[in-house]
Specification:
There is one protein chain. 18% of the residues lie in helices and 21% in strands. With 317 residues, it is of the alpha+beta class. It has one domain: Alpha-Beta Complex (Sulfite Oxidase, Chain A, domain 2). The strands form two sheets. Strands 3, 4, 7, 8, 9, 11 and 12 form a seven-stranded mixed β-sheet that branches. It has a five-stranded mixed β-sheet with strand order 2-1-10-5-6. Strand 3 and strand 4 (141-151) form a beta hairpin. The relative contact order is 0.15. The structure holds the ligand Nc1nc2c(c(=O)[nH]1)N[C@H]1C(S)=C(S)[C@@H](COP(=O)(O)O)O[C@H]1N2 and molybdenum atom. The site of molybdenum atom has 6 residues, from loops.
């Protein structure tokens, strides 16, 4: 019976994401007395690995346009930052050791009800779409790629944070067996990052689960990562296992390592140099062309309002 239920659930989710279906199903689940148990930890029969490949390619959301050609896939999947697999760019082979099934996501802190949800179940409840975004690494290289996934706001709504939650902190898996980078014990594992609630619920904040019309490759942060394209790339934390809602501003991995160079806000700004290099331009992955960097990586129209009352903050590092 459980197996049949899981199948029905999956089909309904991929066929329809409108609110009515969503609510009906929630009511049904409640009526059956399954409630959160259906998605809670300790229900292995329901969290068995299910294939999510059918979700891709997702329908593209045309609202987000590029001002440059898309980066060829081969570059975006072979030139990566993922320190858990090494502190250099060629980690894509090493990252294949990452075990992404099963994958559980913990939602805790200032929420109505902490929960652990299986990734495969979670994504079936989310409005999956494709978005083409630019990505600007703090090291002054950039790419433009088609992510698939869902607005982070959908996840926040699902998590039901309390009104006193002001930030969301995210955490990457830290598995010594598969992640050689963790042998560098002086780094503050697990990798963490954080956003304000206003940032996390801004329409641009995206949770990526796919790339180039397929499930997201391990080296790019499978099975679930953040994408905040107006900020330097290090904010876009990979392979997330935990979302913690809090009223304390989180200190991210890079901020903890070198707080004078990497801050909480990390918004892209060509006029504010990194202490050790210029941020005025960027090298485009694949073509190696140099192009000017844009304020907020070109996304100011969507997010500049978030910062208008924060002039005293170090918004650009
Ligand atoms: N867990 C984790 N997330 C991470 C990183 C990392 O080292 N570990 N690197 C960040 C940096 S610096 C960048 S530029 C992007 C790179 O994403 P990509 O490899 O998909 O291009 O991932 C970010 N997310
Ligand atoms: Mo980066």
């Amino acid at each position: 019976m459980l197996g049949i239920r899981r199948k029905g659930w999956a089909l309904a989710e991929s066929a329809a994401t409108d609110e009515v279906v969503f609510l009906q199903r929630r009511t049904l689940v409640k009526a059956l007395g399954l409630g959160p148990a259906l998605i809670a930890a300790g229900t292995p029969a329901l969290v068995a690995a299910a294939d999510t490949a059918d979700l891709y390619p997702a329908k593209r959301n045309g609202r987000y346009k590029l001002d440059r050609p898309m980066t060829a896939e081969k570059y975006a999947v072979t030139y990566n930052n993922f320190y858990e697999f090494g502190s250099h760019k060629l980690i894509s082979d090493a990252a294949q050791a990452l075990k992404t099934h099963p994958w559980q996501v913990r939602i805790d802190g200032l929420v109505e009800k902490p929960m652990t949800v299986d990734f495969d179940a979670l994504i079936r409840r989310m409005p999956v779409e494709e978005r083409v975004y630019r990505h600007r690494c703090v090291e002054a290289w950039s790419m433009a790629v088609p992510w698939a996934g869902f607005a982070m706001k959908a996840l926040v709504d699902f998590a039901r944070p309390l009104s006193k939650a002001k930030f969301v902190q995210m955490e990457t898996l830290a598995d010594k067996e598969t992640m050689p980078g963790l042998k560098q014990v002086w780094y503050p594992w697990p990798y963490t990052e954080g956003l304000t609630m206003a940032e996390a619920t801004n329409e641009l904040a995206f949770i990526a689960t796919g790339l180039y019309g397929k499930p997201i490759p391990k080296q790019n942060g499978a099975p679930i990562r953040l994408v905040v394209p107006w900020k330097y790339g290090f904010k876009s934390i990979k392979s997330i296992t935990r979302f913690t809602f809090t009223n304390k501003r989180p200190v991210g991995y890079w901020e903890e390592i070198q707080g004078r160079e990497y801050g909480f806000w990390a918004n892209v700004n060509p006029k504010v140099d990194h202490p050790r290099w210029s941020q005025a331009s960027e090298r485009v992955l694949g073509t190696n062309e140099r192009v000017p960097t844009l304020l907020y990586n070109g996304y100011g129209e969507y997010i500049a309002d978030l910062y208008k009352d924060l002039k005293g903050e170090k918004l650009f590092m």
